[in-house]
Write a structure and sequence with these properties.
The chain is mainly alpha-helical and 179 residues long. The protein is 71% helix and 2% strand.
């Protein structure tokens, strides 16, 4: 399998992974921090990065639609089904996780000003009970996203090192010569 995705989609794929890792890392750090100016700054960065993932999602979907690769080429039927389900879950998570975070922030009464410049609208009114619910849903959805990313990575490594079928090289063309 020598086909690869075009560079805009490849670049956006790896940028999205980096953004998700950064948002997750910052979010994890925030759990144990006491309230301080640094914690408030990190919360802002966490929100900014999360919204960037959300706002890049339509671009990713648009670019993905333009690809003409046979997604199931070389895959066993159960692998093709698992791939579609995993990708659907990943895309859904990239929508749900930031939206729930934004809902939590809105319900908690903390406005989001994207990169300190663009005020984002509150999605809901201030409501502590709903804020708590949105926070729990956000954290749960992050766990789902982490599991899906790990499964996605494991599947890519399986294809690269066990099946040797070039699936990973489609999104990592620098590996093509090693496939």
């Amino acid at each position: 399998m020598n086909q690869t995705y075009r560079w805009p989609l490849v670049g956006l794929h790896w940028l999205t992974l980096l953004l998700i890792v950064v948002a997750f890392t910052i979010g994890s750090l925030l759990d144990d921090m006491k309230l301080s100016p640094l914690k408030l700054e990190l919360f802002s960065w966490h929100k900014w990065v999360g919204l960037l993932v959300l706002f890049l999602l339509p671009v990713r979907l648009w670019l993905r639609r333009g690809e003409r690769l046979d997604q199931a080429a070389g895959l066993l039927p159960w692998e093709a089904l698992a791939s579609r389900a995993a990708h659907g879950g990943l895309y859904l998570s990239m929508l749900v996780v930031p939206l729930l975070g934004w809902l939590h922030s809105s319900a908690a009464g903390f406005p989001v000003v994207w990169f300190g410049v663009l005020p984002m609208p509150d999605l809901v009114g201030k409501d502590q009970a709903m804020s708590h619910l949105y926070k729990e849903l956000h954290e749960g959805s992050v766990s789902v996203l982490v599991v899906l990313v790990a499964l996605h990575a494991a599947a890519a490594l399986y294809h690269q090192h066990v099946r040797h079928d070039g699936v990973l090289a489609r999104m990592a063309p620098w590996l093509r010569s090693r496939s």
